């Protein structure tokens, strides 16, 4: 195969993987603690957490001011995480591997060895708030931050948002250098940007490239409510750059470097950053509420393909096609209909489903937005009051009550993770009269999977509930797999239709 053919094959591989949801079900991942990054393999583009790319000579362009303004505010983040090699307290259950994805051996409890990983972070306040990627600090027991001047601090976790792969940590310090927030919306394809971070433990590294694309959905975030609308760049980024800064030529923060497309796990030319427009909302909510106040429109959507446009007689190839409208959602209340094409949110053009996710993700429950749709190829503008996952406009706390199930839920603590050796799960905080009580589910039960989908957060549970309730299947069943803190594994089937 010649070079041009190889390039075409890889390009097609990326394109297909980016739009295929079904193919992601066949994909597994590897976790590299040396770089603290995920590398995906399988039927989609090889993507790993951190970015990379390189650009040739850049004659006539001076990046020295932008580098000077940003490099001092980018920190080296080091973490210690328990090695997930030994499990204990589990009975010899032949169904465990099917539900939980890994075999279990009953073993004696012992102190878990620790492994080290590293990434980058960006100081956003003079008193020590630092934004980084969730995957950099995920499951960590210790977080250490080293500043550009070599001072080292212990950091505490303030909050995380797996749906955007953003986390907020804090160190106790004053008068720290910060990066000013820029405007990621104003970025243009072809515009110069700098990537600042700590690849391969090489501190204070600056590379340059251009914005290659915007609003990329690469299907890397493992969450049912994920928001993927990445800035793509060819600035060279490698393992250890995750959580670092993507800045414009003014030295302003426009993104958080998050992922790479690579067949090797190292720089190959494609890098992806979370836009600062998303980062600002996430960080603000975490600081104020401890959890992101996620607005929901209430539609199932997809991009417009040539085949779809011909089948539905659509006169546009841009916008988010509405496949389904959730009952009692903000979209239904606003009058949005199935087969509408959403083309604007508050007069901001929407060219894809990823862009619609990004736009809605900027708002909070209760916000009123103008939605412009194409219906029968004619523009119609409606007003929608966005809701939260509970179907109302109130503030969501870390503990969520779901009346239908008769239970309250919260994400499991680090203590429970260590005790059970589970990487994730949602704990049943309390049970009252309802579906869970009828099924025999007790308080303390940790939900790990529902209908064979991983439940990593309360939002994942709520999304699974929505999917089950709104399915066309008359048997609206919750197949739940999980365990109790004492190690007892349990499976429940909850009929939501009764």
Question: Explain this structure to me?
Answer:
The chain is of the alpha+beta class. It has helices at 3-19, 64-71, 96-100, 134-137, 276-289, 306-312, 330-334, 353-361, 414-420, 435-439, 458-470, and strands spanning 28-32, 37-41, 47-49, 74-82, 114-123, 129-133, 142-146, 152-161, 166-170, 192-197, 205-216, 230-233, 245-247, 253-261, 270-275, 299-303, 320-325, 341-345, 348-349, 368-375, 378-385, 400-402, 407-411, 426-431, 446-450, 453-454, 477-483, 489-495. Strands 22, 23, 24, 25, 26, 27 and 28 form a seven-stranded antiparallel sheet that branches. Strands 10-11-12-15-14-13 form a six-stranded antiparallel beta barrel. A six-stranded antiparallel β-barrel has the order 4-5-6-9-8-7. Mean pLDDT is 81; it is low at 1-45, 51-58, 85-100 and 102-109.
Note the main attributes of this structure.
498 residues, Pdz3 Domain, 11 helices, single chain, 3 domains, six-stranded antiparallel β-barrel, Thrombin, subunit H, 33% strand
In short:
With 498 residues, this protein is an alpha+beta fold.
Largest sheet: 7 strands, antiparallel
User: What is the percentage of strand-forming residues?
Assistant: 25-35%
Overall residue-averaged pLDDT value: 81
- Name of the CATH first level of the largest domain: Mainly Beta
Gross morphology: globular
């Amino acid at each position: 195969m010649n070079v041009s053919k190889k390039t075409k094959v890889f390009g097609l591989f990326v394109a297909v993987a980016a739009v295929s949801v079904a193919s992601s079900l066949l994909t597994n991942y590897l976790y590299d603690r040396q770089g603290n990054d995920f590398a995906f393999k399988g039927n989609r583009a090889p993507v790993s957490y951190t970015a990379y790319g390189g650009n040739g000579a850049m004659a006539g362009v001076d990046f020295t001011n932008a580098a000077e303004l940003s490099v001092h505010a980018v920190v080296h983040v080091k973490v210690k995480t328990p090695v997930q090699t030994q499990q204990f307290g589990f009975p010899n259950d032949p169904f465990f591997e099917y539900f939980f994805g890994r075999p279990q051996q009953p073993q004696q409890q012992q102190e878990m060895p620790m492994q080290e990983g590293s990434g980058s972070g960006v100081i956003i306040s003079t008193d020590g708030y630092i934004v980084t990627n969730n995957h950099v600090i995920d499951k960590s027991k210790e977080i250490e931050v080293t500043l550009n001047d070599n001072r080292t601090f212990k950091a505490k976790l303030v909050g995380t948002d797996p749906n955007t792969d953003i986390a907020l940590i804090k160190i106790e310090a004053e008068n720290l250098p910060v990066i000013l927030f820029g405007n990621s919306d104003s970025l243009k394809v072809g515009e110069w940007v700098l990537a600042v971070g700590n690849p391969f433990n090489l501190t204070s590294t600056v590379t340059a490239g251009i914005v290659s694309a915007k609003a990329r959905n690469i299907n890397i975030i493992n969450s049912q409510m994920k928001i993927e609308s990445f800035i793509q760049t060819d600035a060279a980024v490698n393992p250890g750059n995750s959580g670092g800064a993507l800045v414009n030529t003014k030295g302003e923060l426009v993104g958080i470097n998050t992922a790479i497309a690579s067949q090797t796990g190292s720089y190959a030319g494609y890098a992806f950053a979370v836009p600062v427009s998303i980062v600002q909302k996430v960080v603000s909510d975490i600081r104020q509420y401890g959890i992101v106040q996620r607005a929901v429109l209430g539609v199932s959507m997809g991009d417009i393909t040539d085949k779809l446009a011909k089948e539905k007689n659509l006169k546009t190839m841009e916008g988010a096609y509405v496949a389904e409208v959730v009952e009692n959602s903000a979209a239904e209340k606003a009058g949005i209909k199935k087969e509408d094409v959403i083309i604007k949110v508050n007069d901001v053009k929407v060219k894809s489903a990823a862009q619609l996710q990004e736009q809605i993700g900027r708002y909070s429950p209760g916000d009123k937005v103008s939605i412009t749709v194409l219906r029968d190829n004619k523009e119609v503008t409606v007003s929608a009051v966005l809701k939260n996952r509970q179907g109302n406009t109130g503030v969501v706390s870390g503990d969520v009550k779901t009346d239908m199930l008769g239970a309250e839920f919260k994400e499991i603590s680090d203590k429970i993770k260590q005790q059970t050796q589970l990487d994730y799960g949602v704990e049943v905080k309390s049970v009252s009269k309802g579906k869970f009580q009828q099924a025999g589910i007790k308080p303390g039960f940790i939900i790990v999977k529902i209908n064979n989908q991983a439940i990593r957060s309360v939002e994942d549970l709520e999304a699974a509930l929505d999917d089950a309730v709104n399915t066309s299947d008359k048997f609206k069943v919750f197949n739940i797999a999980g365990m109790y803190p004492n190690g007892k594994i349990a499976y429940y089937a909850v009929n939501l239709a009764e």
